[in-house]
Design brief:
heterodimer; A: 229 residues; Glycerol-3-phosphate (1)-acyltransferase; six-stranded mixed sheet; 9 helices; B: 82 residues; mainly alpha; Non-ribosomal Peptide Synthetase Peptidyl Carrier Protein, Chain A; 5 helices
């Protein structure tokens, strides 16, 4: 089974098998299509992170499975934690079918640099890449600025003109982090576009860029909860 | 500054970030910062920025890729100090 044909099956499972719905995705999809059409430069997608299948949920929020069939480069590559996806045969199959660049948390710096280089190459080729800039699922259930992973900033710093699509996605019953969302969950999605720049140099610039991205996610989270009061 | 002084300062900077106190008690040049000391990888950049401030050196993104052990950090700093 080729990967593109596998996408509608996954979305079908999420929508009809697990009863998940995403509210507000029409406007988000319209923006994403426009960004993909009108921008030849790198486009990095950065999202908050609460469940192990957030990559699939964010991809679903950004476009319909049918659109991905015709625009496969728009289906974001993602960077799963190796240990989370090698424990079982189904998850290993999943990771081999999806567009994945696995990473081992806490691995040697050379491996991290190699992953960042691969992601930079993919972005420079017009592929979409999805990263969770907090580095892992938020243990508090809220976006954590202090968790901003500097590698995201390093990736942006190496790609002049890189735009970042910040995505905040959360299920109504998602109190904190979990492996999977609840069955029948209804998600809400908000997005914002950012072109981060920094006056700083070296590591400080990378950290500054990463923090700008996470700060934007914090703003989106505030909007999410304000809108639900 | 001697190598021992550099090593001691590096250990002092690392200490607040160390989660494995046993490894800290037996720390040496071959001690891995992430695997042995269990320093959170997301915090490694804070450690390196503290190195920059303490030793008044500039460490590039690529340099950080070479830092796996305490000895690597000491060697990098001493190379920057000239």
């Amino acid at each position: 089974m080729s990967a593109p044909l596998w996408i509608p099956l996954t979305v079908g499972l999420m929508r009809f098998g697990l009863g998940w719905q995403i509210e507000g995705s029409e406007a988000v999809r319209s923006l994403y299509r426009e960004m993909r059409r009108g921008h030849g430069g790198p486009l990095l997608v950065c999202a908050n992170h609460l469940t192990l299948i957030d990559s699939a949920l964010v991809a679903w929020a950004l476009a319909s499975p049918w659109w991905y069939l015709a625009h496969h480069s728009a289906l974001p590559w993602n960077v799963p934690e190796t240990q989370n996806f090698t424990a079982s045969l189904p998850s290993r199959i999943l990771i081999s079918l999806m567009k994945c660049v696995p990473i081992t948390r806490g691995s040697e710096r050379q491996e991290v640099a190699s992953v960042l280089a691969r992601l930079g190459y993919l972005l420079s080729r017009g592929e979409a890449v999805l990263i969770f800039p907090e580095g892992g699922r938020s243990r508090s259930g809220r976006v954590e600025l202090e968790s901003a992973a500097y590698g995201v900033g390093r990736l942006v710093a190496a790609l002049p003109g890189c735009r970042v699509l910040c995505v905040y996605l959360r299920g109504e019953r998602q109190a904190t982090f979990s492996d999977l969302p609840a069955r029948g969950e209804r998600f809400h999605v908000l997005v914002d576009v950012l072109e981060p720049t920094s006056e700083l140099q070296g590591l400080r610039a990378s950290l500054d860029l990463a923090q700008q991205i996470v700060r934007r996610l914090v703003d989106l989270e505030r909007r999410h909860f304000d809108g639900r009061q | 500054m001697s190598e021992t002084e550099t090593f001691d300062k590096v250990v002092k900077i690392l200490t607040p970030h160390v989660k494995n106190q046993e490894a800290l008690a037996a720390i040496g040049p071959e001690t891995s910062i992430l695997e042995d000391l269990k320093v959170n990888s997301a915090r490694l950049v804070d450690v390196v920025l503290a190195f920059e401030d303490e030793f008044d050196v500039e460490i590039a993104d690529d340099d950080i890729d070479e830092v796996n052990t305490v000895g690597d950090a000491v060697r990098l700093i001493r190379a920057k100090l000239g």
